[in-house]
Amino acid sequence: MADLAETFRSATRIKKWSATIVANAVSTYALDTVATAAGVLLVASGQLSGIGIHAAAIVLGASYVLWACGLSSSLAANWRLLEMTGTSSSILSKLAYDLTGRRTMRVGIRRFLSAAGYVVFELAKETPYYIGAFGLALASDAVSGEEALVFLAGANAGAAAYEYGLGWSTRVLLQKAVSYTSFENAWSPAEYLADYYSAVEVDEQHTIAFFAEAAQRIPAGESVLVFGVGPTLHHVFPITTQVSEIHLGDYLRCNLDEISRWVEQDEGAHDWKPFVSYTLQCEGMADPTWEDILHRERLTRARITTLLEVDIRNDRPLADAQRLYTTVLSAYCADSATADLEEWQLYMRRIIELVRPGGTLLVAALGKTHSYLVGGRAFPSPMLGAADMERMLRNCFPEGALTIRTVHVPECAQHGYSSIILAAGHRRRPTSDK
Ligand SMILES: C[S@@+](CC[C@H](N)C(=O)[O-])C[C@H]1O[C@@H](n2cnc3c(N)ncnc32)[C@H](O)[C@@H]1O
């Protein structure tokens, strides 16, 4: 599985670099064509002929302001492109993005260096115009210094329009890409496992530790529902010892099939041992042995009794199996299934309604992002902040029984997010129960 994961990662890296190299070549050619044509047209139009060298220099200065405005539009789009797809129309910008990401530097620094790479490359593209325009002015009488400056001003105006157009079209394309990525057509459990679960990454270190701590307070000996479990088991291990039965629900059959493979100990099943080991450490076992890990795996397999096909878009997400649970855990599901905040609120209400009054809800969500990447494709997320989570949970969970934590995980920027929100709440009992 580790080899397969590495193969997937290498193939994804090659795809992203190939796309960047092609985009870089096309955009260099297009920019050259537009800028040269604009420069030649401005000179040929004669609109500025005879304005004198000083006025031409002022026009050139103004054209740089225009160029900077266009550049700021394409820079913003380039960052979004890098975050959502890991590709860019500038080789240097992608190089800076990849190198800083590998050293897990802060997002702000990564953004600054990617932008610097982009700008340096755009400036380098200006050089031929200067050599061409001034070379011609010096070497021949056919082109005057004034004409050379007017040509450069025109080329800058063309470049500004090009950069603005590039930024706009990139944003439109990305918006379309997000709305077109659907779980039904584009979700691959193998790619998800390869991208996110080859090792215990920082976001999962925090999530598992949070669930392991919260699990100590959930009522013992009852059934638990893990809603939107995906093809994963890492959030199940922390709750296994507390509960009598584990019911796992997901929208996609292919995800549940991946779980079945693990339960049945198929040869191709994902290896969750590093996650079991980490869970045991969170529970206080300093150095879990192989036998400790196998024991938790055996217990988990024995307690998984039901796999459910669920759909959060339905009023009754569990369909015929609709019922209440004493504990419901839902990690990166409602927030990873829509980009719309109101839709997320509706989905969360449906998940909360599955929790018996007095029961416990454990939730994890991506923070402040429009999307996250699986296999290079962007899946939606509604830009959640901790305040959204608090507003959502406050009504059903009394203040003292609600924990909400935002954790910054800049190391995860390559997946499309840099923070996560973890929440645990014990649902209010009806007044008569108290
Ligand atoms: C990002 S994955 C999270 C999986 C897992 N909980 C984890 O932490 O790795 C999002 C999950 O939401 C599920 N999902 C998407 N649309 C859904 C829907 N309409 N109803 C229920 N689950 C859905 C997907 O099948 C997928 O498994």
Characterization of this structure:
The protein is of the alpha/beta class. The chain has two domains: 2-180, no CATH class; 184-433, Rossmann fold (3-Layer(aba) Sandwich), CATH 3.40.50.150. It contains 13 helices and nine strands. The protein has helices spanning 2-45, 53-85, 91-102, 107-139, 145-180, 183-186, 189-196, 202-215, 253-263, 273-282, 290-303, 341-352, 386-394, and strands spanning 223-227, 245-250, 304-309, 325-331, 355-367, 371-374, 377-380, 402-408, 419-426. It has a seven-stranded mixed sheet, with helices on both faces. The chain has a two-stranded antiparallel ribbon with strand order 6-7. A hairpin with a 2-residue loop joins strand 6 (371-374) and strand 7 (377-380). The structure holds S-adenosylmethionine (SAM). S-adenosylmethionine binds at residues 183, 228-230, 232, 250-252, 255, 310-313, 331-333, 336-337.
CATH hierarchy class name of the largest domain:
Alpha Beta
Number of domains: 2
Distance between the termini: 51 Å
General form: elongated
Using only CA atoms, what is the Rg? 28 Å
Strand content: 5-15%
- Physical arrangement of strands within the biggest beta sheet: 3-2-1-4-5-9-8
CATH architecture of the largest domain: 3-Layer(aba) Sandwich
Give a count of the beta strands, DSSP E runs of length 2 or more.
9
**Number of helices, where a helix is a run of at least 4 consecutive DSSP H or I residues:** 13
Which segments are poorly predicted (pLDDT under 50) over 5 or more consecutive residues? none
What's the helix-strand series?
HHHHHHHHEEHHHEEHEEEHEE
CATH topology of the largest domain: Rossmann fold
CATH superfamily of the largest domain, by name, is: Vaccinia Virus protein VP39
Transmembrane segments: 21-45, 51-71
InterPro entries: NNMT_TEMT_trans, SAM-dep_methyltransferase, SAM-dependent_MTases_sf
EC number: 2.1.1.49
GO molecular function: amine N-methyltransferase activity; N-methyltransferase activity
